[in-house]
Amino acid sequence: MPLTPAVAIHLTAALTALALGPVALWARRARQQHPRLHRAFGYAWVTAMVATALSALFIQSHTVVNIGGYTPIHLLVPVVLVMLFLAFRYLVRGNITGHRKTMQRLYFGACVVAGGFTLLPGRTLGKLVWGQLGILGVS
To answer: Most exposed among 7, 13, 36, 100, judged by the fewest C-beta atoms under 10 Å?
Structure first.
């Protein structure tokens, strides 16, 4: 799969979310809390996650099991959007624990786990990373 504009946007947004998430989470977990930092990085993280999810809709694959070019990983798009909605709903209703747990789970599931799967040797990003490093004979 070539590096199309949709793939470039998706990759940039995903890596941005991966980097911003820990700061947003830490700012409220630290011994000395930083609410302004938490809010700023939180909104930036949400923006990056929305961009990641929506850009995924423009990335299709016909090399693996798919329906109309959409593969099973595309099921994460509605999951991410619904979880973001729920997290903000919790926040508006004053359920800080629900907000925190939803955001932590979303970061771990969507950024860490799903991001890890993109590095598998047969996937586009995996081929790019492992091919550049000359690891696993992938090119």
So the answer is: 36
